[in-house]
Specification:
Elements lengths: L8 H18 L3 H7 L4 H9 L18 H13 L3 H21 L2 H13 L4 E4 L15 E5 L3 E12 L6 E7 L10 E7 L5 E6 L10 E12 L3 E2 L5 H37 L1 E2 L2 E2 L4 H29 L5 H26 L9 H9 L9 H10 L2
Parallel strand pairs: 1-4
Antiparallel strand pairs: 2-3, 3-7, 4-5, 5-8, 6-7, 9-10
C-alpha cells in the first residue's frame, strides 16, 4: 500500500516496522487481551522501546521528530491489526493525552514527564468526558476550586476514560470559573495516580474495544498543586479543541486501517467460500459491492493523507479533519456491515475476526466527536 504522492521513504519504513510489530507481537496474543480487558503493561513498554511513542516528539526527549503523516501511518497500521482495542490504547497515549502535556506544559513539566511518556514507562490518559458532557465540552461540571495561592481542589466525575486504569498521569478538564462563559471557565490539570481524593471508580464493560481499559474516575476533594495546571488558567476549552484536530485525523486513519483489513479479509473469504456450485466471488453483486467499498476507502485514505500533509505544513484543517471524522466513522461501519453479511452465519459467531471488528467499529461514529457534531463543524465552514 504505497502512497508516494503523500509519503516519503521514511514514512514507508515506519509502516514496515509497525506492521512487523503487529504481526509478531500483537496478533498472536491479542485474543487473550480481549478476555482480560486490557493490553499488558509490558506490551506498551515494548512499543516505547521501539520508538513508536515518540514518533512526533523532539529528539531531546527521545522522540523521532517526524510529522503528522507519520502518526497517520502509525494509526492506520494499528487499525489494520484488526484489534482496535489495542490500537486505541496506544493512540490515546501518543496522540490524544500526551499531546496536552507537550503542547501546553511548561518546560519543567515536559522535562519531568516526556521522557517516560516516550519510553512507555509512563502511560497517559485524557479525562474530559463526563456523565453529562461528551461531545458538548462546554457542559463540563467537574470543579476545581482555588485553595490559597498554591493549590486547587477537584470535585467531580469522569467517564468513558480510555487508559483510565493503566494511566500514571491524567490530563483532567475542570471548571475553574463557574461565572465565566462556558468556553472561558475550563482549565486543564495534570493529576497523578495515587493523589489523595482521586480514585479509579470502576473499569467499564464495553460492546467493543474490549482489550482497551476504560474507566470511571472520581475526584473527591482531590488537592492538586497549582504548578500542575496545564497551560493558562481558563483556557482549557481551547486546548481541548486544538488537540481534537489531531485526535480526529488519527481516529479516521485508524478506521480506514480497520476498513481495509476487513475488505482484504472478506475478499479472501468469498473467493474460497462455495455456494450454489461456485465461489461467492462469482456473484456479481458481491464483488461489485466490495469493489465500491474499496473505492470509497481509497478515496477516504487519500483525503486523510492530503490533510495530514497540509497539517504538517502548518495549514488550517479544521474543516477537513471534521470531514474525516464524520466520513470515516460512517464508512467503517458500512464496510463492516457488508463484510459481515458476506461472511454469512459464520460472521455472526463470536470468535470470528469480522464479528469482533464489527463490534469494535461501532464506536468510531461516536468517540472523539459524534458524526452529527462533526457535520455541524463542516456546515459552519461551508
Amino acid at each position: 500500500m504505497t502512497d508516494s504522492l503523500f509519503l516519503e521513504p521514511e514514512h514507508e519504513q515506519l509502516r514496515d516496522q509497525i506492521r512487523r510489530f503487529v504481526e509478531e507481537e500483537i496478533k498472536p496474543h491479542a485474543d487473550a487481551w480481549e478476555e482480560t480487558g486490557m493490553v499488558p503493561r509490558e506490551v506498551l513498554t515494548r512499543m516505547g522501546e521501539l520508538g513508536f511513542f515518540g514518533i512526533r516528539y523532539p529528539d531531546r526527549f527521545g522522540g523521532a521528530e517526524m510529522d503528522t503523516r507519520a502518526t497517520t501511518v502509525w494509526a492506520e497500521e494499528l487499525g489494520r491489526s484488526t484489534f482496535s482495542g489495542v490500537a486505541i490504547t496506544a493512540l490515546v497515549h501518543t496522540d490524544m493525552a500526551s499531546v496536552h502535556l507537550f503542547n501546553a506544559g511548561t518546560d519543567a513539566q515536559r522535562d519531568r514527564w516526556m521522557p517516560g511518556i516516550i519510553s512507555g514507562k509512563t502511560i497517559t490518559a485524557v479525562a474530559v468526558t463526563e456523565p453529562g458532557a461528551g461531545s458538548d465540552v462546554k457542559g463540563i461540571r467537574t470543579r476545581a476550586t482555588r485553595k490559597g495561592n498554591d493549590a486547587f481542589v477537584l470535585n467531580g466525575a469522569k467517564t468513558f476514560i480510555t487508559n483510565g486504569v493503566h494511566a500514571d498521569i491524567y490530563c483532567v478538564a475542570a471548571k475553574t470559573d463557574p461565572n465565566a462563559p462556558p468556553s472561558r471557565g475550563v482549565t486543564m490539570f495534570l493529576v497523578e495516580k495515587g493523589t489523595p481524593g482521586f480514585t479509579v471508580a470502576r473499569q467499564l464493560d464495553k460492546h467493543g474495544w474490549r482489550s482497551s481499559d476504560t474507566a470511571e474516575l472520581l475526584f473527591d476533594n482531590c488537592e492538586i498543586p497549582a504548578e500542575n495546571i496545564l497551560g493558562e488558567e481558563g483556557r482549557g476549552f481551547y486546548a481541548i479543541m486544538q488537540n481534537f484536530q489531531n485526535e480526529r485525523i488519527v481516529i479516521g486513519a485508524m478506521a480506514m486501517g480497520e476498513a481495509q483489513a476487513a475488505i482484504d479479509l472478506t475478499v479472501d473469504y468469498v473467493k474460497t467460500r462455495q455456494a450454489f456450485g461456485a465461489p461467492l466471488w462469482d456473484k456479481q453483486a458481491i464483488r461489485q459491492r466490495l469493489a465500491m467499498l474499496q473505492a470509497e476507502v481509497t478515496a477516504a485514505r487519500h483525503l486523510i493523507y492530503a490533510t495530514a500533509m497540509r497539517d504538517a505544513a502548518g495549514e488550517e484543517v479544521v474543516k477537513e479533519v471534521s470531514m474525516i471524522k464524520a466520513l470515516c466513522g460512517d464508512l467503517v461501519n458500512r464496510v463492516m456491515h457488508d463484510c459481515l453479511q458476506f461472511h454469512g452465519g459464520t460472521g455472526f459467531m463470536r470468535g470470528t475476526v469480522i464479528e469482533r471488528m464489527t463490534r469494535d467499529a461501532r464506536v468510531q461514529a461516536i468517540g472523539g466527536g459524534a458524526t452529527e457534531v462533526m457535520l455541524e463543524e463542516v456546515a459552519k465552514r461551508m
